[in-house]
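Annotated sample (chain length 558).
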Amino acid sequence: MNNRVGIDVGGTYTDAVFFKNGRIQHTAKVPTESENLVETLMNAFDTLNISDEQEINQITVSTTLVTNAILQNRIPPVELLLFSGHGMKIDALPWPVNYTELTGEMDFRGREIEAPNQQEWESLPLSAAQANRSHVAIVGKFSHRNSLHEEQLAGFLKERHPSLRIALGHEWGQANFYRRSLTTYLNLGVSELYQQFAQNLQNALRARKIQAPIFILKADGGNLPLAKIRPIDSIYSGPAASVLAALTQIEPDSSSIIVDIGGTTTDIGLILSGVPLLSSKGAKIGGFSTLVRSLAVRSIPVGGDSVVRSNDQNDRGFIIEPYRLGAAYCLGGKAPTPTDAMRYLGLIDYGNLQLAEEGLATLLSPEQRTPQFLQELAAGIIDRVVDRIIEAVGSLKREWEDEPAYKVWQVLHPHESKEFNTLVSGGGARGIATALGKRLKTSVRLGAFPEVSNALGAALARPTFDCTLHLDTYMKHYRVEETGEQGKWTGSLRPHREVEGFLETLVQKQAAHYDIQLQDMEKEPFDFFPIVQNYQTVGQIVRGAVHMRPGVIGRVRE
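Output written by the structure step:
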């Protein structure tokens, strides 16, 4: 195992770990400055106190940059132009952004049914182009089968507005028109922000003469080089890091519920027989449904620093808000939090005990500020946090049961208990683990290095890789689902070994493009569907795929 640094930028704190020869040498935790993430990253890096920075082989970062930009609506306007075709009216879908429909249609095989109307293109209201800042996303309903219309419009617009930043929907390669449109829109919208971040981070490391490659953790639990990742793929990398951290500690074939309790949110994930469960539908962020491959995880807005305020209308006299106002009261903050309850009850040993008591006392009337009432209040706050987590675990379990991967797992493991162990990590883990175990009625274990678990998961993550080939030999056309690559097929109408070699060539080309080493590859058997006309086979629809699943490069040795 080489020497790696993992850094996780959370909403409250940024955590870092340094691995050397398979062991954690140093850990760090610094406050996150959301307006200056690069400075925060470098602060966490410096706090690791690595004596010889040149011995670092890789730095992997899990960042909230793109997630926050989308949720806080901090992306520039994007013109969304759609070749929506006929069929279902797309205004029946819950579009969170405005769009313009254009004439032009392909059928489901990629054959042109209706040509575009160039007169429509002449009158497109690209007002932002005058300021040289316009972003345009172009998506056709079946462009993943034939990108001709998207490319024609892109060429037309570029000729008239050379400064336009244009993104094409076929590059996401999958069939869901609605999700593909929103994914293209979002990825283009955050691209400049991400590129600026990437450049600043590279410059900061280069100034220190650090040559180690920088990787970014993705929502699916894999990592890719900083310059190769599509920005939106980095959403929800924090929850993914929680699951990866668990993989470094649990038994290889065990099944676990992962609960990571941070300062702002609590992340929940599931591992089935040593394999993280992937969501079949793609990630959803805010009002946007996307095609981003994601682990089946959930984040809920409750954490160690969530604000607790009094409420006479509530039967227990307090409310836990879904936001934070800085540090816990016992750590110099302005409002009482669950962390103060943990400190008062002796569940954690950091923070000022007297300040924790003072913070909790603000939630009580003067005559109630006695040890008995304070004890009951603190216990009630812990119970309320546990209630939220239990509710989220139950809800996500019900969703998991509908996931195709979960159903397959049940078939393959018919005798395995459906009761999972629970691994708890995060800054609030020590204070919640015991209460959570009593309520879940399962074995609950505190993760190794729980305060920096996400950084640990990031450090030991390995790349994920998928290459899915769709081939229509009658149309003499192929496409790659993950990248949107399209091209002419020059082989036979009924290929067998020929198509295996073709897929292998595509795999090696993509791996070289992403600068990643492939290992533990899984190959799906090829599917061959004959195309019959007039009682004769005139071609085949062929599908084959190769995958490198999410995983880690080693286990934690304390």
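Annotation: Residues 180 and 513 are 23 Å apart (CA to CA).
Annotation: Confidence is low (pLDDT under 50) at residues 128-132.
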